[in-house]
Amino acid sequence: MRAVDLHALAPCFEGVIPSTIATCSADGVPNVAMLSQVHLVDATHVALSRQFFNKTTRNFAENPLATVWVWNPLTFETWRLRARFERSETAGSLFESMAARIQAIASHTGMAGVFRLIASDVFEVLAVERVEGVLMPPVPGSHAPLPARPEPPERRPELWVLQRISERVNAAEELDALLDSVLQTLDEDLGLAHASVLLADESGQKLFTVASHGFGESGAGAEVAFGEGLIGTVAKERRPVRLSRLSDDLRAGRGVRDRVEKAGGAALRPEIPLPGLPDAQSYLGLPLVVRNRLVGVLSLEARDTLSFDAWHQDFLAIVANQLAMDIEQLASQDHEAPAPGARVTAKPPAEPRTRRLCFYRSDDCVFVDDEYLIRNLPGRILWKLLRAHQQGRTEFTNRELRLDASLGLPELKDNLESRLILLRKRLEQKCPDIRLARRGRGRFALELCCAVEFDERP
Fold first, then answer.
1. Do β-strands 451-457 and 354-360 pair in parallel, antiparallel, or remain unpaired?
2. DSSP 8-state class, residue 2
3. What is the pLDDT of residues 364-405, one digit of tens each?
4. Which domains occur in the chain, in start order?
């Protein structure tokens, strides 16, 4: 038995190996249950997630003493926590932080509103014991050695990385350069190779992907509704969501879903595909908030379990706050300045070609050669630029677009800069013969390396 110092057991509370709780009723009947979350509150307290727990809850209401077993996923050491129930919380920071994690899994598996946190049950830990003999020693020669796990990238000093991010942020004159440089720095200096930034659209109900790193295709334009899946839950709750055993959590959620469906419960929403990596084991999403207004979400994924710990969440929260403020600033600027250096023009294709573009007025959707390109505000912008190009215009400014009432930009926080980035990237993916070329801060040109046929339909 040792003095209580729960921070020394931090890896045990990441949820990689499910924990268990043993309680006993007033008349001496024991009960053992699996735990979804054991949340580290402080040096002497943990909080247990209550989603069902009928028998367990009745037991500690009658007898407040409990035993919680936790496992270190790195060393497989087993620890027994002697605990005493103190209180249940159904609101507040602790409850909302634990609820966001469960809501993310529930939303992802189509169980929103069904699979949810009822309460956070807070226990005082009275003693910590290391449990010996849980794992038997291996028999010599009976097991092949496990392949060596590659060492993680060196974690550089926090202030060094913050300074590097700050320098790159200050050097960025345009929003896409800002986002690309921050994601590149997270990869180079922290080994976080798979990340994306999604921004809130003008409706305030959806996010759209504007930058990504490490996923192959950029995914620009992919949309997520608030409250939908992991990323949507981060946006709706405006709280970080960190998961360390994603496949197990999803499996548990699907198990509950199967039982609800077999019991003839309410119709459930379809499961949402994982964003980015199909085999992600770790996830960390952080809201980008400025003055209580959601700007977007920074989303990170990894294939290894335990890729994100409490340190990552706290450190990246600082990065997210700075990123949100700079997105806000760069997305709203209208400065016009001459472009440094020579212009970069697109090389003409080896053979001339004709692109057929069709604009549907009902939903502002643009198709190129019968393939979907873009819709909504970026679609309206592209169609306006193409029509102006027909009349001989090639260069435009952000300011004139903001003042054009026909585009229907919102009066406040129009997200024009982010929409232009999205349009530029979609053209690069789907129609590289048409491109938006920068001409300086707040200025750009529409360059066509092909003939264009126009069609406009209701």
1. parallel
2. B
3. 899 999 888 888 888 999 999 999 998 999 999 988 998 888
4. 6-131 (2.30.110.10), 158-263+270-332 (3.30.450.40), 354-457 (1.10.10)
